[in-house]
Each structure stands twice: as C-alpha cells, then as structure tokens.
Amino acid sequence: VEVRDWTGRFAAEAVGVVRPRSVAEVAQALASGYAVTTRGGNTGLVGGAVPATSRPTLMLDTTLLTGMGPVDDRSGQVTVGAGVPLAQVQAHAEAAGWTYGIDLAARDSATIGGTVATNAGGIRVVRYGMTRAQVVGVQAVLADGSVVDEARGLLKDNTGYSLSGLLCGSEGTLGVITAVRLALHRPPRAPSLGVVPVPSLDAALDVVAAVRRTGAELLAAEVVDAASLALLGESVRGWRLFIEVADGGAAEGLGALPDDAEVGLDAAARRRLWAVREGMTELWGRAAAQAGTVVQKYDVSVPMVGLDPFVAHMRGLLGDRVGVFGHVADGNLHLEVVDPDREWDEEVLTLVARAGGSVSAEHGIGVAKRPWLGLTRSAAEIAAMRAIKAALDPRGILNPGVLLDP
Ligand code: FAD
Ligand code: MLT
Ligand code: ZN
Fold it and tell me: Which is nearest to 321 in space by CA: 300, 305, 298?
C-alpha cells in the first residue's frame, strides 16, 4: 500500500496496514519480523509517520485504540487510548467540568498517542506547557513486545528513570504508545480575545507583557505576518497579534488596546477571529500547490530577544518567498517558504542555529529535519539518543530512518 503524509511531501510503500485493538495485538505486530511505522491521525508535518527505510515495513495504525476512562474528579486525571482524537479528549474533559491543556488546529484528527509521540505544542503552551507537561504516565509496547505501564495515575513516583518522559517526543522510535494518563486543569474563566495590529514582534511581546502585568490569566499569544494575511486578500503592514485572556469575557483583562484592535468576546466572534490564525497551515499549503510545489515548513524557536532580527534575516534571505506566523510568547515561529525552484533547509536552519535556536520547536524531527539535528543538538546528546535507541530497540524495527540516521 502507498502511504502519504498530510503535507503530500512524503510518500512510501508499506507491506500492509494493521489496526490493533489491544496491547496484545500491538505486541503481535511488533513480532511480525517487519519494521513498524506507527501512525495516529497522520497530521504530523515532518514525515514521521511514513516508512523511511528500504526495509519491508508494516504500518501500525492506532486509531482503533479508542478506550477512554472516566475523569477522576479527585485527581483531575483521565486515561485515554492512544488513538483517541484530541478533540474527543477535550470534549470528554469539558463534559466532566475540566479542561485539557493542549489545543491545536488539527484537533479533530490528531490523536493523543501522536501528540505525545511528538510532544505537540499548539496555542495553549503559554498557559499549560507542552504535551509532556500534561502526561502523568504512558503505557507502551516496546520493540521486544514487553509492556511498560506508567499510566497508573501516580502523580509522584521517583523510582528511577521516567520511561514516559522518554516516550514523549520519541516519534515512534522507542515504543508504540497504547494509552496515556493525562492531567487535566480546572477550566479557566470565560475568555476575551484581542486581535491587535503591531509593527514588530517586540511590540507584540510588549503587549503580552502589559497584559500579564494586569494579573490576567494569559491563555494564548499568537502572531501572523502581512505576507500570510495577504493570502487572505488583506493588505496590512507589520503583524497581527491574537491575544486571549481568561478574564470573565468582558475584555478588561486585555487592558487598553489601540483603536484599530478587534475584540471577540462571545464564542462565535472568537471562533471567527481565531479562524484566520488557525487556517494558516492549509492556506500556505494551498499557496504552494498553486505555485506547483509543496510548502517548505520551518518550525523553529529562537531566543525571544532575537525574534525581530531573526525575521529580518529570513526576509533578507528569502524575500517574498517567506511568510511567518506562530507562537510569539513561546519564541516559536513557523516559516513557510514557497519556492518551486529550490530548497532552503541549509541556509534557514544554519541561521536558526547561529541565532541560538532549535531546528524544531514543536513538530519534531521526522525525516524532514533529520539531516539537521546536529545543528542544534550536540554530538554528546545525539550519542546518548543513539545509545537509548540501541538499548530499547536493538533490531532497529521501530520507525527506522525517523529522527536518527539508521
Ligand atoms: P501522526 O502524524 O500519525 O504521527 C506523528 C509521529 O508520531 C510519527 O513519528 C508517528 O510514528 C508517531 N506516533 C503517532 N502515534 C504514535 C503512537 N501511538 N506511539 C508511538 N508513536 C506514535 N503540531 C504542534 O505541535 N502544534 C500545532 O499547533 C500544530 N498545528 C497543526 C495544525 C494542522 C492543520 C496540522 C495538519 C498539523 C498541526 N500540527 C501541530 C502537527 C500535528 O498535528 C502534531 O504533530 C500531532 O501531534 C500529530 O498527531 P497525529 O496523531 O496526527 O500523529
Ligand atoms: C501551527 O502553529 O499552526 C502549527 O504548528 C501548524 C503549522 O506550523 O503549520
Ligand atoms: Zn505551531
């Protein structure tokens, strides 16, 4: 069968697809003698769920691992099967009077297992942290078929290495995650959203700092640049900041905003305003398709003080081939490059490394960024990763070619 990723950039042949319904069936797949590539919702953006090896590979699709336990009102925890879509976990938590700390535009398809395997971020990181911070414990099947289960609900457990910590962000290379025990949060007060034109990222960060000084609970701070807004037919200068606070929904937590800011208070208004920011991935994908290519996506972080100089460098390098949006308060920018003529990985990612940043802030390494891992991780760190991989997967059957050079 042909396997293709969400972006259309990565495709490969697999010998077949298995859809296990239980931990035992996952172990059976791992004993098949084939290499195994695990796939959840297939919304990953770095080709990590497409076979990256010439070895015959089985696709292990987790979407039937859909068990979902009750929310424990005393601990604020819930156990969820790896294949449950993020949006279902959000709804399940809300129905029980809690909230889940991760939200991203791919919520209807991205699975809990996939978000843990990529340590996904999204728009609520500024408030609740990355996926790793939501994970109490992971249950997973290792390459030899053994099951590790830290999803037992112990918030405090200092008995040696955290296997769950290792599995967060492991991109299918260390084990197949079958279930996750998640920590939920009390729901915030009703939110107010401000959409504020700002001339620079520094100015955006000043607005964020001012809002934080009011004591309001900051829920999100996102930016979109003029090149991205131009794809929607809007002609603006500078940036648009999307800032959301939990202030009861009366806008007071946003402080004094400029006259040209828009405010969204009720759910419908906020949804309409957020749609612009949330639509960026598909919008840039379509822009690239119209230019007869696929978008070159760079998901980077740079130190907060260097955001504007970094963007200036990128625009100097790429001109009107580049658009920028992202999670400004996390120092995480998404650069979208549309260029049918050549790839820009080396130039862009070398500049990221020089700026003291990371070649992947949230999407992971997959195959797309594999040649560039050494730009922002040291030789000692990569050697430690290789040692862990060799110890847990000596036959190299789990996602060979993803994250580490096989
Ligand atoms: P897949 O794409 O199926 O797999 C991703 C990786 O995880 C692969 O390496 C795969 O092998 C591994 N994997 C999947 N399930 C398991 C498992 N059970 N056990 C072990 N390994 C597994 N990402 C962000 O961080 N922030 C965002 O804001 C964000 N927004 C997005 C918006 C859109 C429109 C799209 C299309 C993507 C976005 N993403 C974002 C990327 C993507 O949604 C995340 O990486 C998500 O975590 C992937 O989940 P998935 O279930 O689709 O995983
Ligand atoms: C986002 O922040 O919208 C996501 O990480 C997706 C993307 O970068 O396209
Ligand atoms: Zn993002």
Answer: 298
For residues 134-150, average pLDDT: 98
pTM above 0.90, yes or no: yes
Non-local (6+) Cβ contacts of 1 within 8 A are 13, 14, 15, 16, 17, 59
Nearest CA to ligand 1 atom 1: 42
**362 in contact with ligand 1, CB cutoff 6 A:** yes
Does ligand 2 lie within 6 Å of residue 280's CB atom? yes
CB atoms within 10 A of CB 313: 17
Q: Which residues, in sequence order, are bridge partners of residue 63?
A: none
Q: How far apart are alpha carbons 153 and 70 in whole angstroms?
A: 13
pLDDT in tens, 61-92: 999 999 999 999 999 999 999 999 999 999 99
d(CA 211, CA 233): 30
* 357-392 residues labelled b (16+ CB within 10 A) or e (exposed): bbbbbbbbbbbbbbebbebbbeeeeeeebeebbeeb
State the residue for tokens 């200092």: 158
Amino acid symbol at 240: R
Of 21, 16, 27, 19, the closest CA to residue 57 belongs to 16
